């Protein structure tokens, strides 16, 4: 495996990005891996490596670079802890438009990487970034041909860039994995999401993972559910195989 921590230039500065891909062969299809709210950490790097071992060129960008933050470290369980409040502030500092600008910058960076394929790309976002992965597919329909939201939040909002609205602009196959117990994406929003995607004529699937909590795919979370996590990996790899080659 080749691993690098590189700065990718954006219009707002330098975005530190973890890059990994197989050592030999290529070029490899690209997967954009958007981080969740607790920021970059070894847990996410390990997940990026798992994508790469399956034959992908993976970009894991630090979306908090505008705030000068790279890693937050361990977070207390108490939702009122200062560390968690800081995480929420950082999350709220982001916007879909900012992340789409960052995505455009990553695509420019990829043109300099011989190991990265210039063909179909995939995108996956967890938690706060599920909305970013879907918007990326809608914003760059000529490149992103598979996108997944894993227990994504804010999938149905009143804004024009709400994922349930912009999905109609995507040509990608879309996949939404939802936890049964998720206060950020409650059960009563799942059927409306399915209906909106169906009415828009999208190639999309919404899957409910019974008995799971928000964050079930992260090995270091107390809510980690290994069978569900492995199923989510199977579903992602199948999605990318079908659409990225």
Descriptive tags:
245 residues; alpha/beta; Rossmann fold; eight-stranded mixed β-sheet; 7 helices; globular
Written account of the structure:
The protein is α/β, with parallel strands linked by helices and 245 residues long. It has a single domain (2-244), classed as Alpha/Beta hydrolase fold, catalytic domain (Rossmann fold), CATH 3.40.50. Helices cover 33% and strands 24% of the residues. The chain has seven helices and eight strands; from the N terminus they run E-E-E-H-E-H-H-E-H-E-H-E-H-E-H. The protein has an eight-stranded mixed beta sheet, with helices on both faces. Helix 4 (130-139) links the parallel strand 5 and strand 6. Helix 3 packs across helix 4.
In round numbers, the mean pLDDT is: 96
Instruction: Give, in spatial order, the strands making up the sheet with the most strands.
Output: 1-2-4-3-5-6-7-8
Contiguous uncertain segments of 5+ residues = none
Q: At the fourth CATH level, what is the homologous superfamily?
A: Alpha/Beta hydrolase fold, catalytic domain
The CATH class, by name, is Alpha Beta
């Amino acid at each position: 495996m080749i691993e690098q921590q590189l700065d990718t230039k954006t219009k707002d500065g330098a975005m530190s990005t973890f890059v990994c891909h197989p050592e030999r062969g290529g070029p490899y299809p690209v997967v954009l891996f958007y981080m969740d709210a607790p920021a970059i950490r070894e847990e996410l790097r390990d997940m990026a490596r798992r994508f790469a071992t399956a034959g992908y060129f993976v970009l894991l960008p630090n979306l908090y670079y505008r705030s000068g933050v790279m890693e937050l470290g361990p977070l207390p369980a108490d939702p009122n802890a200062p560390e968690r409040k800081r995480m929420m502030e950082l999350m709220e500092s982001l916007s879909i438009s900012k992340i789409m600008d960052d995505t455009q910058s990553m695509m420019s960076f990829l043109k300099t990487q011989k190991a990265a394929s210039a063909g179909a790309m995939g995108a996956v976002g967890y938690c706060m970034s599920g909305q970013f992965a879907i918007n990326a597919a809608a914003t760059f329909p000529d490149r992103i041909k598979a996108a997944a939201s894993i227990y994504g939040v804010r999938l149905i909002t009143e804004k024009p860039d709400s994922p349930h609205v912009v999905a109609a602009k995507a040509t990608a196959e879309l996949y939404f994995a939802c936890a049964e117990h998720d206060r950020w994406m409650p059960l009563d929003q799942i059927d409306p999401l399915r209906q909106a995607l169906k009415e828009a004529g999208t190639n999309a699937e919404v899957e409910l993972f019974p008995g799971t909590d928000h964050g079930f795919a992260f090995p270091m979370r107390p809510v980690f559910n290994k069978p569900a996590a492995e199923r989510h990996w199977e579903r992602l790899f199948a999605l990318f195989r079908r659409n990225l080659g």
